[in-house]
């Protein structure tokens, strides 16, 4: 069965970002600060985002080939309670594979998630209630 997708009103915004933490040596950090002071970038984050986007653009073909080969959903995939209830009613189970953001609605119970989701592979961010994440822990790779 194809993975159901809920209506746009109940989906998380695709433009939301995830916070990451990186450690840099003082020389690298100093060089970043110098480029910011010289006006090349508005702040440290601007330089780091630009550098990451440049690297992703450099490897875009490899990413696309891997997404196709691994049958990943690229972008945002949201599962509502209604979606998972329909999967259960059809006596189906889901294999969630996403490059981007996968989310499960806050009103999905751990029991419903366990009954309908075989595995979760997310390269990016996975949003679900703490209870659902705990219930699916052995199925999240």
From TrEMBL:
Pfam families: RHH_8. SUPFAM superfamilies: Ribbon-helix-helix. InterPro entries: Arc_rbn_hlx_hlx, RHH_8, Ribbon_hlx_hlx. CDD domains: RHH_NikR_HicB-like. This is CopG family transcriptional regulator. It comes from Paraburkholderia kirstenboschensis.
């Amino acid at each position: 069965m194809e993975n159901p997708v809920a209506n746009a009103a109940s989906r998380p915004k695709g433009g939301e970002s995830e916070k990451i933490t990186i450690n840099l040596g003082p020389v690298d950090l100093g060089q970043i600060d110098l480029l910011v002071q010289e006006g090349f970038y508005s702040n440290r984050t601007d330089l780091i985002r630009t550098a990451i986007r440049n690297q992703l653009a450099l490897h875009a073909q490899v990413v696309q080939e891997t997404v196709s080969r691994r049958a990943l959903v690229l972008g945002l995939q949201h599962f509502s309670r209604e979606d998972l209830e329909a999967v259960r009613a059809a006596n189906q189970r889901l294999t969630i594979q996403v490059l981007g953001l996968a989310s499960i609605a806050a009103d999905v119970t751990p029991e419903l998630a366990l009954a309908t989701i075989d595995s979760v592979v997310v390269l990016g961010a996975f949003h679900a209630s703490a209870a659902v994440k705990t219930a699916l822990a052995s199925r999240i790779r």
